[in-house]
Amino acid sequence: MSPTLMWFRSDLRIHDNRALAAAAHRGPVIAVYLRALPHWQRHGHGANQLDFRARGVAALETALRGLGIPLLHRDIDDFGEAPETLLTIARETGAGRVHFNREYPVDELARDAAVIEAFRAAGLEARGHHDAVAFAPGELLTGKGDYYGVFTPFARAWHRQLSAERLALADTPPPQASIGIESDPLPALPALADTPIDGRQWPAGEEAAADRLERFLRFRARHYANQRDFPAIRGTSELSPYLALGMISWRQCLQAVLAKNDGSLAEGDAGLTAWVNELVWREFYRHVAVGFPRVCRHRAFQRHTEGLAWRDDDAGFRAWCEGRTGYPIVDAAMRQLVATGWMHNRLRMVTAMFLSKHLLIDWRRGEAFFLRHLVDGEFCANNGGWQWAASTGTDAAPYFRIFNPTTQSTRFDPDGTFLAEWLPELAELPVKARHAPPRDLLGGSDYPSPIVDHKAARLRALEAFKALKAD
Ligand SMILES: Cc1cc2nc3c(=O)[nH]c(=O)nc-3n(C[C@H](O)[C@H](O)[C@H](O)COP(=O)(O)OP(=O)(O)OC[C@H]3O[C@@H](n4cnc5c(N)ncnc54)[C@H](O)[C@@H]3O)c2cc1C
Question: Which atom of ligand 1 is nearest to the CA of 228?
C-alpha cells in the first residue's frame, strides 16, 4: 500500500484526530505541515499565535516521532501554493493520497477544494474529514432548510441529534514500521513585526492541553456557571488556544464531561452543562461562516447594518488599543490582552461593545486588533463575538442594550481585584473609586480621564442605529 499524506493544519494532535486515524487505517503515514507565515500575517494573525503554533508543531513532531511517522515541513508564501506543494511531496514520496481535517471559513474551503481538484486531476485521492465539529455545516438546518442564524434553536437541534457515534474518539494510530523517510528539521520562527509574549504562559501541545482540561474539570468546572463572568477569578478553562489550534479536540472535552456528569451533556451539573453550551457556541459560529459566507468577506451578518455611519477616530482607537480610555475595566482588559494574548470572555464583550458603541468605531478594526494579539485568535469565534457586540451579527445584542462599562465593572469585579492587577496606578485607590476614579484622587498619576461620556456616547450610538432603521 502506498503511503498516505496527513496534512496537519489546525489539528495539531495525534489523539482523537479523525483524518490521522483514517490515514493510518490505509497503511503507512507521512505527516506534512505547510507553514505559510506571510499568508497568515496578511490575514492578520499576530506573533503570539504564530509562536504558539510553532511550538505546537514542535510538540506534534515529537509525538509523531513516537509513532514512527515522519513530519515533512515546507515553507510557502501563500496557501494558493498548497496543491502544487502537496502534489510534489506525493510524487517524491510515492504517496497515493492526502487526508486532512476540514476548516470552514471561505478561504480555507476554497484552498481545500483546490487541493482536492489538483489531486483528482493527478489521479490521486484527497479526503477532507469533519473533525472540528460534531455536525458538518449543512447537516443541522432549520425546518425551512436554512442555516441557523440564531443560537438557541441551533443548540437545541445539536443536542437532539448528537449521537454516541459523533462523540466517539478516533483511534490513535499504532506505531508504524520505518518507511525510510526522515522528518525535516523544524525551522525556527523568524523575527516578526511584533515580539511574541513569553511562551511559558501558554505551553503548547497535547499534554499541556490535557493537563489544563484535567485541572479545569477537577477544580473549577463545577463552579463555572457562577464564576465564569468574574475576570478576577480563574473560573474558565483557558482552553481556547488549544481548541483553536486543535491541540485538544471538542470530543475529548465532551467525553471528559460525560465521565464527570453521569453520561449527560444537557442535564445534571449546572457548571458542566454551561461549559458544554460554550463549546456549542464554538460550533455554531463555524456553521454560520459556511451558511452566511458574507461574514467571511468583512460583511455584516445583519445586512441592514452595513450602512452604519462608523466614525473615523484614530485617536480613540489608539486609546482603546493601549488601554487608555479612562474607563478602568476597558483599560485593564486591553492591557490583559496585550500582555497575555488572552482576554476574559466577559471583558471581550465589554471592550468590543465599548469600541463599537461608545466610540462608534467600525467593529472590523477591533476584530483585527484582537486577531493580532489573541493566542486563541480564530476567525469564526472572533467574528461572531465582534458582530454580536456591535449588534450586526447573529443573536446580536439589541442595539439599544449598551453595556455601561462602570456598571459592568462594579458588577463583575466588585472588589476591584482585576482592576488593581492590570492598572497598578489605581491599586491604591479605595475599591469603589477604582471603577471610575475621580480626578482629585488620582494625584500625580497620568491615568486618563474618560475619553467619552457614557451617556452622550450611548445616545450617539442609538442615533446611528436609528438612522439605519430609517433607511
Ligand atoms: C469580541 C469577542 C471575540 C472573541 N474572539 C475569540 C477568538 O478569537 N477565539 C476564540 O476561541 N474565542 C473567541 N471569543 C469567545 C470567548 O471569549 C473565548 O472562547 C473564551 O473567552 C476563551 O476562554 P476559555 O477557553 O477559558 O473559555 P471557556 O469559558 O472555558 O469555554 C470553553 C471553550 O468554548 C469556546 N467558547 C467559549 N465561549 C465562546 C463564544 N462566545 N464563542 C465561540 N466559542 C466559545 C472556546 O473554544 C472555549 O475555549 C470571542 C468572544 C468575543 C465576545
Answer: 29
Asked if pLDDT for residue 471 goes beyond 50, the answer is no
Q: Which atom of ligand 1 is nearest to the CA of 237?
A: 30
For ligand 1, the distance from its centroid to the CA atom of residue 231, given in whole angstroms, is 14
What is d(CA 12, CA 33) in angstroms, rounded to the nearest whole number?
10
**Catalytic residue (choose from 278, 404, 421, 425):** 278
Sign of CA dihedral 148, 150, 153, 157: positive
312 and 456: one domain? yes
Residue where a domain terminates, one of 96, 127, 158: 127
Model confidence over 106-143: pLDDT tens digits?
999 999 999 999 999 999 999 999 999 999 999 999 99
The reply to whether 275 and 307 lie within a common domain is no
Q: Name the residue range of residue 411's domain.
A: 303-470
Q: Which three cell numbers stand for residue 411?
A: 458588577
Write the CATH number for 421. Answer: 1.10.579.10
Instruction: Tell me which of 94, 127, 160 is where a domain ends.
Output: 127
The amino acid that residue 276 corresponds to is: V
Find the 381 Cα to ligand 1 centroid distance in Å. 7
Q: What is the mean pLDDT of the chain?
A: 97
Percent of the chain clearing pLDDT 90 (strictly above): 97
Single pTM value for the model:
0.98
Instruction: Write out the DSSP string of 198-248.
Output: PGGGS--SHHHHHHHHHHIIIIIGGGHHHHTT-TTS--S---HHHHHTTSS
Position 85 in a domain:
yes
Q: Does residue 275 carry a catalytic annotation? A: no
Does 194 map to a domain?
Answer: no
On whether both 377 and 334 belong to a single domain, the answer is yes
pLDDT in tens, 44-103: 999 999 999 999 999 999 999 999 999 999 999 999 999 999 999 999 999 999 999 999
Is residue 286 within 6 Å of ligand 1 at its C-beta? Answer: no
282 lines ligand 1 (CB under 6 A): yes
Give the atom of ligand 1 at the shortest distance from the alpha carbon of 343: 21
- Answer positive or negative: Cα dihedral of 11, 14, 19, 23: positive
Are 119 and 235 found together in one domain? no
In a domain, 461, yes or no: yes
For atom 20 of ligand 1, the residue with the nearest CA is 345
Report helix, strand or coil for 100: strand
Please compute the mean of the pLDDT values over residues 400-415 and round it to a whole number. 96
Domains of the chain: total = 3
Q: 71 has which bridge partners?
A: 31
Residue 373 within a domain: yes
The residue whose CB lies within 8 Å of the most ligand 1 atoms, and thus the one to mutate among 10, 278, 334, is 278
